[in-house]
C-alpha cells in the first residue's frame, strides 16, 4: 500500500490460547493487503506461559515480524504502550487486544481511512455505522452503552466510542498522548481520545464488530467500573 510501516502493540497477560490465533490472523490479513508491519508482544509476566508461546511464534514467523519485549509483572496498560513505543520501528502504531475481540480484517480499512483524511488517529467504533458487539449479555451491553452515552454528554469528545481499544495512531501522536494521560485501566482509553481532542488532533472512525473473548476470563470487574466513574468525573473536571 505504501512505504509506511505499522507497529502493532499487543499487551498480553494470560493469553496463551489466543496469541497464536491473533498472530496468524494479523499476518494473513496484513500480508494479503501488502502492509509492512511488526507485532510487538508486551507480556507482563503471564503465569500461564504466554511468553513461551510468543517465543515459539517468533521462531515460526521470524524476529522481524514478532518482536518480544516482555516485562516482569503487570504494570498497567499505559506503561505497556510507553514500553512498546520505545521499540516500535514503524511510523504508525496500532493498539489492539490480543484476546480475539478485535479482528485484524479491519486494520486495512483503518489504514485506508487514515490516508483519506490524513487523520492523526483512527478509532475502531462499535457504536457507529455497521459497528456492533457480539457475545455480551444484555446487562453488559446496557452498561457499555450507558457509559458511552453519559461520557458523550459530559465530555463531547468528537468520537463515538471512547472506551474501545482498537486504534491506529501516528507514532508521535501516540507518544504525546500516552505521556499526557494520568488514568489507569479502562479509563485510560477514554482519556486518550479526550486528550486528542484537547490537543487538536484529528480523529477518524471505522465501524468494527467487537466479539467477546473466546478463551480466558474477562478482566472487567466491579473495581474497573468504579474506576471508570471516578475517571469520568476527573476528566469532566479537568478538561
Automatic annotation (TrEMBL):
CDD domains from the UniProt entry = DPM1_like
Where does the source fall among the domains of life?
Eukaryota
Which cofactor(s) are needed, names only? Answer: Mn(2+); Mg(2+); Ca(2+)
Per the record, what are the reactions this protein catalyses? Answer: a di-trans,poly-cis-dolichyl phosphate + GDP-alpha-D-mannose = a di-trans,poly-cis-dolichyl beta-D-mannosyl phosphate + GDP
Q: Which GO MF term does the entry hold, naming one?
A: dolichyl-phosphate beta-D-mannosyltransferase activity
Q: Which UniProt keywords apply?
A: Endoplasmic reticulum, Glycosyltransferase, Magnesium, Manganese, Metal-binding, Transferase
A Gene Ontology biological process noted in the UniProt record is: GPI anchor biosynthetic process
Query: Which InterPro entries would you find in this protein's record?
Result: DPM1-like, Glyco_trans_2-like, Nucleotide-diphossugar_trans
A GO CC term assigned to this protein in UniProt: endoplasmic reticulum membrane
Q: What is its EC number?
A: 2.4.1.83
Q: How does it assemble?
A: Component of the dolichol-phosphate mannose (DPM) synthase complex.
Spell out the PANTHER family in the cross-references.
DOLICHOL-PHOSPHATE MANNOSYLTRANSFERASE SUBUNIT 1
* Name used for this protein in its record: Dolichol-phosphate mannosyltransferase subunit 1
Amino acid at each position: 500500500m505504501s512505504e509506511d510501516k505499522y507497529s502493532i502493540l499487543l499487551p498480553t497477560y494470560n493469553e496463551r490460547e489466543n496469541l497464536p490465533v491473533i498472530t496468524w490472523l494479523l499476518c494473513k490479513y496484513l500480508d494479503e493487503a501488502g502492509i509492512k508491519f511488526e507485532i510487538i508482544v508486551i507480556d507482563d509476566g503471564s503465569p500461564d506461559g504466554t511468553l513461551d508461546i510468543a517465543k515459539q511464534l517468533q521462531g515460526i514467523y521470524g524476529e522481524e515480524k514478532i518482536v518480544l519485549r516482555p516485562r516482569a509483572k503487570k504494570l498497567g496498560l499505559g506503561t505497556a504502550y510507553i514500553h512498546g513505543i520505545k521499540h516500535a520501528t514503524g511510523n504508525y502504531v496500532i493498539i489492539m487486544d490480543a484476546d480475539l475481540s478485535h479482528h485484524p480484517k479491519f486494520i486495512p480499512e483503518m489504514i485506508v481511512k487514515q490516508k483519506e483524511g490524513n487523520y492523526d488517529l483512527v478509532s475502531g467504533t462499535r457504536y457507529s455505522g455497521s459497528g456492533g458487539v457480539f457475545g455480551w449479555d444484555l446487562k453488559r451491553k446496557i452498561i457499555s452503552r450507558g457509559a458511552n452515552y453519559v461520557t458523550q454528554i459530559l465530555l463531547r469528545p468528537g468520537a463515538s466510542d471512547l472506551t474501545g481499544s482498537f486504534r491506529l495512531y501516528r507514532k508521535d501522536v501516540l507518544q504525546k498522548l500516552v505521556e499526557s494521560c494520568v488514568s489507569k485501566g479502562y479509563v485510560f482509553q477514554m482519556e486518550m481520545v479526550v486528550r486528542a481532542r484537547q490537543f487538536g488532533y484529528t480523529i477518524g472512525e471505522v465501524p468494527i464488530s467487537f466479539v467477546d473473548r473466546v478463551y480466558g476470563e474477562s478482566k472487567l470487574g466491579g473495581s474497573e467500573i468504579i474506576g471508570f466513574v471516578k475517571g469520568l468525573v476527573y476528566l469532566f473536571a479537568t478538561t
